[in-house]
């Protein structure tokens, strides 16, 4: 799996530089992505990969929602699909599997923290996978020359 970090870095960098799904503005280096992956592994948080025709087409992972201990049964999901593989069901396959893995591991709630309210693909994907809208926090981020909302969605596991 660590051998897939290069592909994950390429996909994530595209979305950092061109989208609003991540509130990072500088694409992280591959070694940073590897450190993040290894930290999730050390904490037993799942990272999932999707392949199409032998190529990494997307990845998803769960991480802690917040660090304080009482949040320990809640995870936050992240999903990034390669730009040439969107709209083919990859995101739904990854998110449904992530929900299943996290449910089996004993987590109780999954939070989606979506940037931003114009991200119809992510909002639609989460709706399709059983998430309900909690609310929208206005203008928490500033990227690509505009203010960005955060849309909170939640699913019981
Ligand atoms: C959001 C994202 C992961 C969706 O992945 P995807 O593989 O394209 O999604 P799927 O093809 O599996 O679509 C699943 C459902 O999501 C919804 N959806 C996907 N793209 C959509 C779009 N452009 N507009 C509206 N709804 C959309 C639909 O409900 C779709 O189900 P349907 O095909 O039965 O109608 C992908 O667009 C992506 O990587 N976006 C950039 C990064 C990002 O914002 N990630 C989320 C961070 S919170």
Task: Please tell me about this protein's structure.
This protein is an alpha+beta fold and 157 residues long. The protein has a single domain (2-156), classed as Aminopeptidase (3-Layer(aba) Sandwich). 32% of the residues lie in helices and 34% in strands. It has four helices and six strands, in the order ααβββαβαββ. A six-stranded mixed sheet has the order 1-2-3-4-6-5. Strand 5 (132-143) and strand 6 (146-156) form a beta hairpin. The relative contact order is 0.15. The model has no long low-confidence stretch (mean pLDDT 97). It binds coenzyme A. Coenzyme A is lined by residues 15, 19, 21, 78-81, 86-92, 112, 114, 119-122, 124-125, 128.
What's the total number of strands?
Answer: 6
Question: How many structural units, i.e. domains?
Answer: 1
| Number of continuous helical runs | 4
Strand percentage:
25-35%
Largest beta-sheet details: 6 strands, mixed
CATH homologous superfamily placement: Gcn5-related N-acetyltransferase (GNAT)
Question: For the largest beta sheet, what order do the strands appear in spatially?
Answer: 1-2-3-4-6-5
**Rg computed from alpha carbons, rounded to a whole number of angstroms:** 15 Å
Helical proportion, percent range: 25-40%
Unreliable stretches: none
Q: What is the approximate shape?
A: globular
Order of helices and strands: HHEEEHEHEE
Overall mean pLDDT stands at 97
Looking at the structure, the CATH topology is Aminopeptidase
* Distinct compounds present: coenzyme A
Ends distance: 26 Å
Q: CATH first level: which class?
A: Alpha Beta
CATH architecture annotation: 3-Layer(aba) Sandwich
